[in-house]
Design goal:
42% of the residues lie in helices and 17% in strands. It is α/β, with parallel strands linked by helices. Helix 2 packs antiparallel against helix 9 (263-272) and helix 6 crosses helix 7 (203-213).
Length: 295
């Protein structure tokens, strides 16, 4: 009799263990934080993937601040080229990209993160006479000249004013689209070796890359006519236009509204974008075209 009672007691104990431990186990599994993959484009100084400044680019640092502000989620980063990033953002994946353009209605993006001076034409000084000797030039006129080769990254976007023109000449023999992760460094090398005649880039990006390559003093920067009335280029975070992406963008916007006015955030702009002589103008742009956009 005692043995039976003892056996029954063990059975009740095991039953209770299974009954009460099961739901807790399932609950813990269900509550595991999801993982967001942040896609990174090798485009210094927005994203810096190699060297002593790796991870300290403009978008790199903003991304870290956003990740810190998002609660209950894990994050990982992965370097990819522009084509791969565009493809994954158009799929139903848990990926985001902190280097997208703000204001493109075709994309799901956050409120603005940064404002940058517009893209310019970058050429060798010795060839500047082919491009108006430093005066403002028309991109459309240049693309009609089959003798001048334009170098770009595959699927690279430059903002609506320039993209509208570039779409008309996609696939032209005088447009070279480079793929791979080292697109800016590679294009600079091609420009230096005269395999392409001009590229388009942010002033802040080209200076960083050209100084690193030791050719900054050999380059000329020329304004582009189609950009003359363009607003400053503004960055944003992009996620897939899905239920998940829309929910996450709302949370990212909450984080950005909190972090954008902070001294830590302003320090990023000061370190990378503000140059001697343009501080007053730049902070006005930052105030009007970034901070005042809250929805």
């Amino acid at each position: 009799m005692y043995a039976r009672l003892k056996m029954l007691g063990w059975m009740l104990f095991l039953f209770s263990f299974v009954l009460f431990s099961g739901p807790f186990h399932l609950s813990a599994t269900a509550e595991e934080p999801e993982t967001i993959t942040w896609l990174i484009l090798d485009l210094p100084p927005l994203f810096i993937t190699t060297g002593p400044d790796a991870g300290d680019g403009i978008a790199d640092q903003i991304q870290k601040m956003i990740i810190k502000g998002l609660k209950g989620r894990r994050s990982e980063t992965r370097v990819a080229n522009a084509s791969r990033i565009a493809k994954e953002l158009n799929q139903d994946r848990k990926v985001c990209f902190a280097g997208e353009f703000y204001g493109n209605p075709a994309f799901l993006t956050s409120i603005p993160t940064i404002a940058l001076p517009s893209h310019n034409l970058i050429v060798l000084k010795e060839n500047a006479h082919l491009f108006g000797s430093g005066k403002k030039v028309s991109l459309e006129n240049l693309l009609q000249n089959q003798d001048l080769i334009f170098g770009t990254a595959e699927n690279r976007l430059y903002g609506p004013e320039l993209d509208t023109v570039l779409r008309q000449y996609s696939g032209s023999k005088n447009v070279y689209a480079r793929s791979g992760k080292d697109t800016l460094e590679g294009l600079l090398g091609m420009l230096d070796k005269k395999r392409v005649h001009y590229i388009i880039e942010y002033p802040v990006s080209i200076r960083y890359a050209a100084e690193k390559a030791g050719i900054w003093d050999r380059l000329a920067i020329i304004p582009i006519q189609e950009n003359s009335k363009a607003l400053p280029i503004r960055g944003a975070v992009r996620c897939p236009d899905t239920l998940w992406g829309r929910r996450l963008i709302r949370e990212i916007n909450d984080v950005l509204r909190t972090i954008r006015p902070t001294p830590e955030y302003r320090r990023i702009m000061k370190d990378w974008i503000v140059t001697p002589g343009n501080a007053e103008d730049y902070w006005k742009i930052h105030e009007n075209h970034v901070l005042k956009i809250t929805e």
